[in-house]
Amino acid sequence: MPRLLSRLPFALLVVCTVLCVAGCTAARHEVHTDVVRSVRFEGNGGLFSFEQGDFLLVSQMEQGDSPWGVTIFPMKYWIDPEAYAPDALARDAYRLEVWYAHHGWFDARVEGWEVIRTRPRGKKRAGVVQIRGFVSPGEPSMVRRFEIAGMDQPVHRQFRRTVLRTGWVQEDQRFDLDLVEETRLLLLDLLSRHGFPYARVEATMAAYPEEKAVEVSFDTDPGILATIGSISVAGNVAVSEEVVLDTLTFEEGEPYDVRDLKRSQRRIFQLSTFSVVNVTPDLSDPSRREVPITVSVTEAFFRTLRLGAGASYTGGTLSPHVSATFRHTNMLHRLLQLEATGNIGYGISSRLASAPIYGAELTLSTPRLFSPDFGLVLSGSIEQDVQSGQYYYLNPKALLAFTYKPNEKLILRTGPSWELYEFRDVDEEDPSVLVLFGEDFQNPYRLTKWSNQLVVDWRDDPVFTTRGSYYGIGLSQALPITEWILADNLDGPPGFLYTELSVDVRTYRRLRFKKRVTSTPFTLALRFQGKALKTWGDHTSLPYQEKAFLGGASSLRGCLADQVGPYNTVCIAPDPDKEEIVRYLPRGGNLGAIGAAEVRYDVNGTLSAVVFTDVGVLVDSTEEVDFQSLRVGAGVGVRYASPVGPFRFDIGVRPLYPEDGGPDQVVGCDFTSEGPFPVERPYDPRIRGYDLFSALFPKMQRPRDTRTIPFALNVYIAIGEAF
After folding, report:
1. Binning pLDDT at 50, 70 and 90, where does residue 312 land?
2. What does the domain layout of the chain look like in residue ranges?
């Protein structure tokens, strides 16, 4: 049973594959003619040409190509094939020549197509072809002159200089129709942000293909300087008009700034009370200095109920469960928000006795405490689950947090929390607990903290980020208040007295390889994340689950979850007639930090490829930080923009480290029969499986110096960006 559960991910993959093969149709059986395996071009600079690569050209075609794996088992049962349409290629030649002309290649020609058959047609399955296009782009035309007319007044000259200096269109650069439009919109945006809502900008282009030159000019009418006029609210029924007006970031009589309209629209939507929010200026009369503003809202369903089911697999424990969530977003017509969630399931573990798991949480919050900038959250929860596949625990928790959000980019949270943590299947005499926590371990224990968090979020999109930055700083102080109150005197239970500092910094930027040329589909993402804990006085112990751990899908991706650093192997025999339970307990650390870098290539808007590298360190003090303490991993991955979020598939590799050779301590274990590798156990049970190879093939679960593969490989499938 334990070995079966350790192979559960592989078994689930096999079962899903078999079911899909039994219930799905192979890609070649869905098409009656031919399937297009790929479309490639010659003459355009190659597959990864930044300006005219294969992906850019295929995205403009009516004839597409099939996703990767159309002829490979088992992927061929999961993907939709692209049928070959000969008539579409003739139309695609014209489409591509138009695309080339819009991007400055006026002499570009599609010289022809070559269809290469790689697999013949059968009676019940389609053939497979590859399409090769031959293009001759010629020399691109450059922007010879770029002028902006109608901006000669002193108040307008600054905007003119800004666009000429930083706009996408630049003299002596390749002409691109898309960049002309982007620059036109940039000028309109600058004017509307500085009080000119009636501005008009028209672009005129004159091309001279024989001279390889294009002249671009903007005819501009800035209009009059305007202010905010009357403000009206429409569509509200249960929510008062005053609530909407108080949430706005502008008032009547202030200078007109289109950014205030956008900010207000986001703030009203974040009240979670409206399903549709529009903040619209009335620009019908260009001679009117006071611009009327209409706020149109559509109230959402205040009460919602969601039901769901799922399963998770962590640390050798499979946990199927069902869940329910009830939410009320406008209690007492005061924007009070109530959310109640619950889930119940069953934990099936390779190391523990199977037992029910459950969780419930009740949260009451308001986004408007004293003003729209202040909020309050009150939450209570209780949970019974498995800690890293090792112990069943019970964890009731209460939280009170005050929030301050002056704008959509900055938020500050502060408030106390209290929780009780009880391991359900251990006692103070358990050797594994003593190894983890020391002689002063208490079960259950209480933890009281005051936590502060500052978040500054300048990302363009919190999920599919391409540019911007994110800064998160947390400072928490744990105090033994409960122990002082409950103890008869100050010599009672010591409790916990420590400070926790956490930092999360991320930055994103589009990569450009030529000055002032449109962004390539490459995005560079960098992240630094760290956590440090410091105890004070005689309070030297720390809650185990509060320590720093590294490894996992959003940490060091070459390592399994929480498996960086030394660990202990602990064996427990609950019953003489049953096989003893083996647990592999990572020690964690007081200081953990990672640095990660990703380069993402946007394939087609919903699919992107990723190359990443991670570096981390996990120690108990800064004095232990050296080259030997570093852990490094790298890999490749795929991101898919699914309806529920970014679907992530990562393959991470890393070298072997000292912890892969075995545990620091072995407690309560006696593996003496037939030497360290008995016949009935073709692996060393003291050593944990630390990668895909050792999990699927037990013979590789042995010291690193005797392992035939000198590196570790792990695969992660998750929802959400790594960072």
Report:
1. confident
2. 2-136, 142-221, 227-299, 430-719
**Where would I find the beta strands (DSSP E) of 590-656?**
591-602, 607-619, 630-642, 645-655
DSSP string, 422-460: EETT--TT-HHHHHHH-TT--SSEEEEEEEEEEEEE--S
What does the block give as tokens for 325?
A: 């969530």
In CATH terms, the superfamily for domain 142-221 is: membrane protein fhac (3.10.20.310)
8-state DSSP, 623: G
Half-sphere exposure of 307 (CA within 13 A, CB side): 0
Q: Please state, in angstroms and rounded to a whole number, the distance separating the CA atoms of residues 428 and 435.
A: 11
| Fold classified for 227-299 | Ubiquitin-like (UB roll) (3.10.20)
Is residue 251 within 8 Å of residue 264, measured between CB atoms? no
Does pLDDT of 576 surpass 70?
Answer: no
The pLDDT tens digits for 442-499 are: 777 888 999 999 999 999 888 788 889 999 999 999 998 866 666 544 444 567 889 9
Q: Which residues pair with 281 in a beta bridge?
A: 293
Q: Tell me the C-alpha distance between 225 and 416, whole Å.
A: 49
User: Cα angle vertex 209, ends 205, 210, to 5°?
Assistant: 140
The CATH architecture of the domain made up of 2-136 is Roll (3.10)
- The continuous run of DSSP H or E covering 416 comes out as strand 410-423
Residue listed under structure tokens 């912890």: 659
Contact 421, 447 (CB under 8 A): yes
Residue 371 main-chain phi, psi, to 5 deg: -155, 175
With beta carbons less than 8 A apart as the criterion, state whether 471 and 432 touch: no
Encode pLDDT of 579-632 as tens digits: 667 778 888 899 999 999 999 988 766 778 899 999 999 999 889 988 899 999
Backbone angles phi, psi at 443, to 5 degrees: -140, 115
In 511-588 the beta strands, taken as DSSP E runs, fall at: 522-535, 567-572, 581-586
CA distances for 221 relative to 160, 166, 225, 283, 314, angstroms: 12, 20, 12, 15, 63
Please indicate whether residue 458 or residue 78 has the higher confidence score (pLDDT). 458
What is the rounded CA–CA span in Å between residue 392 and residue 534?
Answer: 27
β-strands 645-655, 630-642 pairing: antiparallel
Partners of 523 in beta bridges: 510, 600
How many angstroms separate the most distant Cα atoms in the chain? 96
**Which residue matches tokens 């108990």?**
620
Give the 3-state secondary structure of residue 316.
coil
> 208: which 2 tokens?
């001279």
Structure tokens at 378: 């009150």
Asked if 227-299 and 430-719 have one fold, the answer is no
Residues 681 and 158: their CA atoms lie apart, in Å, by: 78
Query: What spatial distance separates the first Cα and last Cα of the chain, rounded to whole Å?
Result: 36
| CATH pick for 430-719 out of 2.60.40, 2.40.160, 1.20.120, 3.10.50 | 2.40.160
CA separation for the pair 30, 22 (Å, rounded)? 15
CA 9 to chain CA mean position, Å: 23
Name which of 636, 588, 650, 647 is nearest 616 in CA terms: 588
Residue showing tokens 């959400």: 720
Looking at the DSSP bridge assignments, the partners of residue 715 are: 651
The 3-state DSSP class for residue 684 equals coil
